[in-house]
Design a protein that fits this description.
Length: about 375
Protein backbone atom coordinates (compact mmCIF):
# COMPACT_ATOMS: atom_id res chain seq x y z
CA UNK A 1 0.00 0.00 0.00
CA UNK A 2 2.80 2.43 0.89
CA UNK A 3 4.73 1.71 -2.31
CA UNK A 4 1.64 1.99 -4.51
CA UNK A 5 0.57 5.22 -2.82
CA UNK A 6 3.97 6.92 -3.16
CA UNK A 7 4.55 5.93 -6.79
CA UNK A 8 1.06 7.08 -7.83
CA UNK A 9 1.61 10.38 -6.00
CA UNK A 10 4.89 10.78 -7.90
CA UNK A 11 3.20 10.10 -11.24
CA UNK A 12 0.44 12.66 -10.65
CA UNK A 13 1.99 15.41 -8.51
CA UNK A 14 3.26 17.37 -11.51
CA UNK A 15 -0.28 18.09 -12.79
CA UNK A 16 -0.66 21.51 -11.11
CA UNK A 17 2.76 22.87 -12.10
CA UNK A 18 3.61 20.99 -15.31
CA UNK A 19 2.87 23.97 -17.63
CA UNK A 20 5.08 26.18 -15.42
CA UNK A 21 7.93 23.68 -15.62
CA UNK A 22 7.54 23.39 -19.40
CA UNK A 23 7.76 27.18 -19.63
CA UNK A 24 10.89 27.18 -17.43
CA UNK A 25 12.46 24.74 -19.89
CA UNK A 26 12.23 27.29 -22.71
CA UNK A 27 8.79 26.84 -24.28
CA UNK A 28 7.17 30.29 -24.54
CA UNK A 29 4.10 30.14 -26.81
CA UNK A 30 0.86 29.33 -25.01
CA UNK A 31 -0.28 26.67 -27.50
CA UNK A 32 3.12 24.98 -27.40
CA UNK A 33 3.11 24.95 -23.59
CA UNK A 34 -0.27 23.21 -23.56
CA UNK A 35 0.80 20.67 -26.19
CA UNK A 36 4.11 19.83 -24.50
CA UNK A 37 2.39 19.57 -21.12
CA UNK A 38 -0.11 17.08 -22.53
CA UNK A 39 2.65 15.08 -24.20
CA UNK A 40 4.76 14.98 -21.04
CA UNK A 41 1.86 13.91 -18.84
CA UNK A 42 0.51 11.24 -21.19
CA UNK A 43 3.95 9.82 -22.01
CA UNK A 44 4.16 7.84 -18.76
CA UNK A 45 0.79 6.17 -19.27
CA UNK A 46 1.60 5.33 -22.90
CA UNK A 47 4.74 3.34 -22.13
CA UNK A 48 3.19 1.85 -18.97
CA UNK A 49 0.31 0.46 -21.06
CA UNK A 50 2.71 -1.04 -23.60
CA UNK A 51 4.95 -2.86 -21.12
CA UNK A 52 2.46 -3.92 -18.41
CA UNK A 53 1.90 -7.41 -19.93
CA UNK A 54 5.67 -7.89 -20.23
CA UNK A 55 6.29 -7.04 -16.57
CA UNK A 56 3.41 -9.33 -15.61
CA UNK A 57 4.93 -12.20 -17.59
CA UNK A 58 8.37 -11.63 -16.05
CA UNK A 59 6.71 -11.58 -12.63
CA UNK A 60 5.29 -15.04 -13.36
CA UNK A 61 8.75 -16.24 -14.38
CA UNK A 62 11.05 -14.64 -11.82
CA UNK A 63 8.86 -13.54 -8.93
CA UNK A 64 6.48 -10.66 -8.21
CA UNK A 65 8.65 -9.13 -5.49
CA UNK A 66 11.53 -8.74 -7.95
CA UNK A 67 9.29 -6.73 -10.27
CA UNK A 68 8.30 -4.42 -7.40
CA UNK A 69 11.97 -3.87 -6.54
CA UNK A 70 12.69 -3.05 -10.19
CA UNK A 71 9.72 -0.69 -10.45
CA UNK A 72 10.42 1.25 -7.24
CA UNK A 73 14.13 1.66 -7.97
CA UNK A 74 13.47 2.65 -11.57
CA UNK A 75 10.81 5.17 -10.58
CA UNK A 76 12.99 6.74 -7.87
CA UNK A 77 15.85 7.28 -10.35
CA UNK A 78 13.55 8.58 -13.13
CA UNK A 79 11.76 11.04 -10.83
CA UNK A 80 15.04 12.43 -9.47
CA UNK A 81 16.41 12.86 -13.01
CA UNK A 82 13.31 14.82 -14.07
CA UNK A 83 14.44 17.44 -11.55
CA UNK A 84 17.67 18.10 -13.49
CA UNK A 85 16.41 18.18 -17.11
CA UNK A 86 17.58 21.02 -19.32
CA UNK A 87 14.95 21.04 -22.07
CA UNK A 88 11.44 19.80 -22.76
CA UNK A 89 12.60 16.84 -24.87
CA UNK A 90 14.45 15.45 -21.88
CA UNK A 91 11.32 15.91 -19.76
CA UNK A 92 9.17 13.90 -22.18
CA UNK A 93 11.90 11.27 -22.53
CA UNK A 94 12.16 10.77 -18.78
CA UNK A 95 8.38 10.62 -18.44
CA UNK A 96 8.45 7.85 -21.06
CA UNK A 97 11.21 6.16 -19.04
CA UNK A 98 9.17 6.46 -15.83
CA UNK A 99 6.31 4.59 -17.47
CA UNK A 100 8.67 2.01 -18.91
CA UNK A 101 10.42 1.29 -15.61
CA UNK A 102 7.40 1.81 -13.36
CA UNK A 103 4.35 -0.31 -12.78
CA UNK A 104 4.59 -0.63 -9.00
CA UNK A 105 0.85 -0.30 -8.41
CA UNK A 106 -0.06 -2.89 -11.05
CA UNK A 107 2.75 -5.14 -9.80
CA UNK A 108 1.47 -4.88 -6.25
CA UNK A 109 -1.97 -5.92 -7.51
CA UNK A 110 -0.38 -9.04 -9.00
CA UNK A 111 1.53 -9.82 -5.80
CA UNK A 112 -1.48 -9.35 -3.52
CA UNK A 113 -3.81 -11.24 -5.89
CA UNK A 114 -1.53 -14.27 -6.01
CA UNK A 115 -0.30 -14.28 -2.39
CA UNK A 116 -3.65 -13.73 -0.68
CA UNK A 117 -6.06 -16.62 0.02
CA UNK A 118 -8.77 -16.59 -2.66
CA UNK A 119 -11.50 -16.26 -0.03
CA UNK A 120 -9.98 -12.94 1.11
CA UNK A 121 -8.74 -11.61 -2.23
CA UNK A 122 -11.58 -9.11 -2.67
CA UNK A 123 -10.94 -7.45 0.68
CA UNK A 124 -7.15 -7.41 0.21
CA UNK A 125 -7.32 -5.98 -3.31
CA UNK A 126 -9.96 -3.47 -2.20
CA UNK A 127 -7.70 -2.21 0.57
CA UNK A 128 -4.82 -1.91 -1.89
CA UNK A 129 -7.09 -0.08 -4.36
CA UNK A 130 -7.88 2.46 -1.65
CA UNK A 131 -4.17 3.28 -1.39
CA UNK A 132 -3.85 3.58 -5.17
CA UNK A 133 -6.86 5.89 -5.45
CA UNK A 134 -5.63 7.90 -2.47
CA UNK A 135 -2.41 8.47 -4.40
CA UNK A 136 -4.40 9.83 -7.34
CA UNK A 137 -6.21 12.18 -4.95
CA UNK A 138 -3.19 13.33 -2.92
CA UNK A 139 -0.72 13.66 -5.82
CA UNK A 140 -2.12 16.90 -7.30
CA UNK A 141 -2.53 18.33 -3.77
CA UNK A 142 1.14 17.66 -3.00
CA UNK A 143 2.07 19.09 -6.40
CA UNK A 144 0.18 22.27 -5.57
CA UNK A 145 1.69 22.69 -2.09
CA UNK A 146 5.37 21.71 -2.39
CA UNK A 147 6.74 23.81 -5.31
CA UNK A 148 6.01 27.17 -3.63
CA UNK A 149 7.87 25.92 -0.54
CA UNK A 150 10.91 24.11 -1.98
CA UNK A 151 10.81 24.74 -5.75
CA UNK A 152 9.76 22.60 -8.71
CA UNK A 153 13.05 20.75 -9.16
CA UNK A 154 13.35 19.97 -5.45
CA UNK A 155 9.80 18.56 -5.55
CA UNK A 156 10.98 15.90 -8.01
CA UNK A 157 14.00 15.14 -5.80
CA UNK A 158 11.68 14.73 -2.80
CA UNK A 159 9.38 12.42 -4.77
CA UNK A 160 12.34 10.30 -5.87
CA UNK A 161 13.53 10.09 -2.27
CA UNK A 162 10.16 8.90 -0.97
CA UNK A 163 9.96 6.23 -3.69
CA UNK A 164 13.50 5.12 -2.74
CA UNK A 165 12.19 4.53 0.78
CA UNK A 166 9.47 2.38 -0.78
CA UNK A 167 12.21 0.50 -2.67
CA UNK A 168 14.04 -0.24 0.58
CA UNK A 169 10.83 -1.33 2.31
CA UNK A 170 9.94 -3.59 -0.62
CA UNK A 171 13.37 -5.21 -0.68
CA UNK A 172 13.59 -5.76 3.08
CA UNK A 173 10.03 -6.31 4.33
CA UNK A 174 8.09 -8.23 1.65
CA UNK A 175 8.21 -12.01 1.67
CA UNK A 176 6.96 -13.94 -1.33
CA UNK A 177 6.14 -17.63 -1.61
CA UNK A 178 8.24 -18.50 -4.65
CA UNK A 179 6.83 -20.91 -7.21
CA UNK A 180 8.66 -24.20 -7.86
CA UNK A 181 10.92 -24.52 -10.89
CA UNK A 182 8.44 -26.66 -12.83
CA UNK A 183 5.83 -23.87 -12.51
CA UNK A 184 8.36 -21.40 -13.87
CA UNK A 185 8.92 -23.61 -16.89
CA UNK A 186 5.16 -23.83 -17.39
CA UNK A 187 4.84 -20.04 -17.12
CA UNK A 188 7.46 -19.59 -19.82
CA UNK A 189 5.28 -21.59 -22.23
CA UNK A 190 2.01 -20.08 -21.02
CA UNK A 191 0.47 -16.72 -21.86
CA UNK A 192 -2.93 -16.17 -23.44
CA UNK A 193 -3.01 -19.71 -24.83
CA UNK A 194 -2.73 -21.13 -21.30
CA UNK A 195 -6.18 -19.77 -20.33
CA UNK A 196 -8.75 -22.52 -21.02
CA UNK A 197 -11.87 -20.30 -20.85
CA UNK A 198 -11.13 -16.85 -22.22
CA UNK A 199 -14.68 -15.51 -21.76
CA UNK A 200 -14.29 -14.22 -18.17
CA UNK A 201 -10.85 -12.80 -18.93
CA UNK A 202 -12.10 -10.95 -22.02
CA UNK A 203 -15.05 -9.59 -20.05
CA UNK A 204 -12.76 -8.26 -17.32
CA UNK A 205 -10.35 -6.63 -19.78
CA UNK A 206 -13.21 -4.74 -21.43
CA UNK A 207 -14.79 -3.90 -18.06
CA UNK A 208 -11.51 -2.40 -16.80
CA UNK A 209 -11.22 -0.31 -19.95
CA UNK A 210 -14.86 0.78 -19.59
CA UNK A 211 -14.33 1.77 -15.95
CA UNK A 212 -11.43 4.09 -16.77
CA UNK A 213 -13.16 5.45 -19.84
CA UNK A 214 -16.24 6.31 -17.76
CA UNK A 215 -14.11 7.91 -15.04
CA UNK A 216 -11.99 9.99 -17.39
CA UNK A 217 -14.55 10.95 -20.07
CA UNK A 218 -15.94 13.61 -17.73
CA UNK A 219 -12.58 15.18 -16.85
CA UNK A 220 -12.13 17.48 -19.90
CA UNK A 221 -15.57 19.08 -19.48
CA UNK A 222 -15.83 19.34 -15.67
CA UNK A 223 -14.57 22.92 -15.38
CA UNK A 224 -16.64 24.17 -18.32
CA UNK A 225 -19.71 22.33 -17.03
CA UNK A 226 -19.28 23.72 -13.52
CA UNK A 227 -19.05 27.23 -15.00
CA UNK A 228 -22.64 26.82 -16.22
CA UNK A 229 -23.78 25.89 -12.69
CA UNK A 230 -21.84 28.37 -10.52
CA UNK A 231 -22.66 32.06 -10.81
CA UNK A 232 -19.47 33.40 -9.19
CA UNK A 233 -16.53 32.96 -11.65
CA UNK A 234 -14.08 33.00 -8.75
CA UNK A 235 -15.61 29.79 -7.38
CA UNK A 236 -15.53 27.82 -10.64
CA UNK A 237 -12.06 26.28 -10.35
CA UNK A 238 -12.47 25.49 -6.65
CA UNK A 239 -15.82 23.79 -7.27
CA UNK A 240 -14.40 21.88 -10.23
CA UNK A 241 -11.57 20.61 -8.04
CA UNK A 242 -14.03 19.44 -5.40
CA UNK A 243 -16.11 17.68 -8.08
CA UNK A 244 -13.03 15.85 -9.37
CA UNK A 245 -11.96 14.86 -5.85
CA UNK A 246 -15.42 13.73 -4.74
CA UNK A 247 -15.44 10.61 -6.92
CA UNK A 248 -11.93 9.63 -5.81
CA UNK A 249 -12.86 10.12 -2.15
CA UNK A 250 -15.96 7.95 -2.56
CA UNK A 251 -13.90 5.17 -4.15
CA UNK A 252 -11.31 5.31 -1.37
CA UNK A 253 -14.01 4.91 1.26
CA UNK A 254 -15.87 2.05 -0.46
CA UNK A 255 -13.15 -0.08 -2.06
CA UNK A 256 -12.24 -2.32 0.88
CA UNK A 257 -15.89 -2.67 2.01
CA UNK A 258 -17.09 -3.63 -1.46
CA UNK A 259 -14.16 -6.02 -1.80
CA UNK A 260 -15.17 -7.71 1.46
CA UNK A 261 -18.78 -7.85 0.25
CA UNK A 262 -17.64 -9.42 -3.02
CA UNK A 263 -15.84 -12.18 -1.10
CA UNK A 264 -19.23 -13.09 0.41
CA UNK A 265 -21.71 -12.61 -2.45
CA UNK A 266 -19.48 -13.10 -5.48
CA UNK A 267 -17.11 -10.75 -7.28
CA UNK A 268 -19.06 -10.81 -10.53
CA UNK A 269 -22.30 -9.87 -8.75
CA UNK A 270 -20.64 -6.79 -7.29
CA UNK A 271 -19.25 -5.80 -10.71
CA UNK A 272 -22.72 -5.97 -12.29
CA UNK A 273 -24.24 -4.01 -9.41
CA UNK A 274 -21.55 -1.31 -9.43
CA UNK A 275 -21.86 -0.77 -13.19
CA UNK A 276 -25.67 -0.60 -12.99
CA UNK A 277 -25.70 1.87 -10.09
CA UNK A 278 -23.10 4.04 -11.83
CA UNK A 279 -25.21 4.10 -15.00
CA UNK A 280 -28.24 5.28 -13.01
CA UNK A 281 -26.22 7.98 -11.21
CA UNK A 282 -24.94 9.42 -14.49
CA UNK A 283 -28.45 10.42 -15.63
CA UNK A 284 -29.12 13.13 -12.99
CA UNK A 285 -25.55 14.45 -13.47
CA UNK A 286 -26.62 15.60 -16.92
CA UNK A 287 -29.48 17.68 -15.49
CA UNK A 288 -28.12 19.22 -12.26
CA UNK A 289 -28.72 22.91 -11.65
CA UNK A 290 -26.30 23.55 -8.74
CA UNK A 291 -22.65 22.76 -8.17
CA UNK A 292 -23.29 20.96 -4.87
CA UNK A 293 -25.65 18.56 -6.62
CA UNK A 294 -22.87 17.51 -9.00
CA UNK A 295 -20.44 17.09 -6.07
CA UNK A 296 -22.88 14.80 -4.25
CA UNK A 297 -23.63 12.70 -7.31
CA UNK A 298 -19.93 12.29 -8.18
CA UNK A 299 -19.26 11.20 -4.59
CA UNK A 300 -22.02 8.59 -4.81
CA UNK A 301 -20.67 7.43 -8.15
CA UNK A 302 -17.21 7.10 -6.59
CA UNK A 303 -18.73 4.91 -3.88
CA UNK A 304 -20.24 2.64 -6.52
CA UNK A 305 -17.07 2.46 -8.65
CA UNK A 306 -14.74 1.72 -5.75
CA UNK A 307 -15.38 -2.02 -5.87
CA UNK A 308 -14.68 -2.52 -9.56
CA UNK A 309 -10.88 -2.68 -9.72
CA UNK A 310 -10.43 -5.22 -6.88
CA UNK A 311 -13.30 -7.35 -8.22
CA UNK A 312 -11.88 -7.30 -11.76
CA UNK A 313 -8.53 -8.52 -10.42
CA UNK A 314 -10.23 -11.17 -8.29
CA UNK A 315 -12.29 -12.56 -11.21
CA UNK A 316 -9.13 -12.78 -13.34
CA UNK A 317 -7.26 -14.49 -10.51
CA UNK A 318 -10.07 -17.05 -10.10
CA UNK A 319 -10.37 -17.80 -13.83
CA UNK A 320 -6.78 -18.12 -15.08
CA UNK A 321 -4.07 -20.62 -14.15
CA UNK A 322 -1.80 -19.48 -11.32
CA UNK A 323 1.30 -19.66 -13.51
CA UNK A 324 0.04 -16.92 -15.90
CA UNK A 325 -1.86 -14.76 -13.40
CA UNK A 326 0.71 -11.96 -13.54
CA UNK A 327 0.72 -11.90 -17.32
CA UNK A 328 -3.09 -11.71 -17.50
CA UNK A 329 -3.30 -9.02 -14.80
CA UNK A 330 -0.74 -7.09 -16.85
CA UNK A 331 -3.09 -7.21 -19.83
CA UNK A 332 -5.82 -5.91 -17.51
CA UNK A 333 -3.62 -2.98 -16.53
CA UNK A 334 -2.95 -2.18 -20.19
CA UNK A 335 -6.69 -2.24 -20.94
CA UNK A 336 -7.29 0.22 -18.09
CA UNK A 337 -4.62 2.56 -19.45
CA UNK A 338 -6.32 2.44 -22.86
CA UNK A 339 -9.53 3.62 -21.19
CA UNK A 340 -7.60 6.27 -19.30
CA UNK A 341 -6.26 7.69 -22.57
CA UNK A 342 -9.40 7.20 -24.68
CA UNK A 343 -11.82 8.59 -22.07
CA UNK A 344 -10.66 12.24 -22.15
CA UNK A 345 -10.34 12.18 -25.95
CA UNK A 346 -13.85 10.81 -26.40
CA UNK A 347 -15.37 13.04 -23.70
CA UNK A 348 -13.73 16.14 -25.12
CA UNK A 349 -14.90 15.35 -28.66
CA UNK A 350 -18.52 14.61 -27.65
CA UNK A 351 -18.64 17.57 -25.28
CA UNK A 352 -17.34 19.95 -27.94
CA UNK A 353 -19.42 18.71 -30.88
CA UNK A 354 -22.63 17.34 -29.33
CA UNK A 355 -22.93 18.94 -25.91
CA UNK A 356 -21.77 18.41 -22.34
CA UNK A 357 -24.94 16.65 -21.22
CA UNK A 358 -24.39 14.11 -23.99
CA UNK A 359 -21.11 13.07 -22.33
CA UNK A 360 -22.93 12.00 -19.17
CA UNK A 361 -25.76 10.30 -21.04
CA UNK A 362 -23.40 8.55 -23.48
CA UNK A 363 -21.27 7.28 -20.61
CA UNK A 364 -24.48 6.10 -18.90
CA UNK A 365 -25.33 3.98 -21.94
CA UNK A 366 -21.83 2.47 -21.98
CA UNK A 367 -22.01 1.57 -18.29
CA UNK A 368 -25.48 0.04 -18.71
CA UNK A 369 -24.28 -2.04 -21.66
CA UNK A 370 -21.28 -3.13 -19.58
CA UNK A 371 -23.55 -4.20 -16.71
CA UNK A 372 -25.83 -6.19 -19.03
CA UNK A 373 -22.92 -7.83 -20.80
CA UNK A 374 -21.27 -8.85 -17.52
CA UNK A 375 -24.60 -10.25 -16.30
CA UNK A 376 -24.91 -12.49 -19.34
CA UNK A 377 -21.19 -13.41 -19.26
CA UNK A 378 -21.52 -14.43 -15.62
CA UNK A 379 -24.43 -16.73 -16.45
CA UNK A 380 -22.70 -18.25 -19.49
Amino acid sequence: MFGSFTTIVAMTLLLPFLPLYVEQLGVKEHAAIVQWSGAAYGATFLTAALVAPLWGRLADLYGRKLMLIRASLGMSVAMALIGVVGDVWQLVGLRLLAGLLGGYASGSMVLVATQTPKARSGWALGTLSSAIMAGNLVGPLVGGALPPLIGIRATFFAAGGVIFVAFLATALLIREDRQPSQSRAAAASGGWAAVPDKGPLTAMLLTGMLLMLANMSIEPIITVYVATLVEDPARVTMTAGVVMSAAALGSILSASWLGRLADRVGHWNVIVGCLAVSAVLLIPQAFVTEGWQLVGLRFLMGLSLGGLLPCIASVIRHNVPERVAGNMLGYSTSAQYVGQVAGPLLGGFVGGHVGMRAVFLGTCVLMAVGAAWNWFAKRA
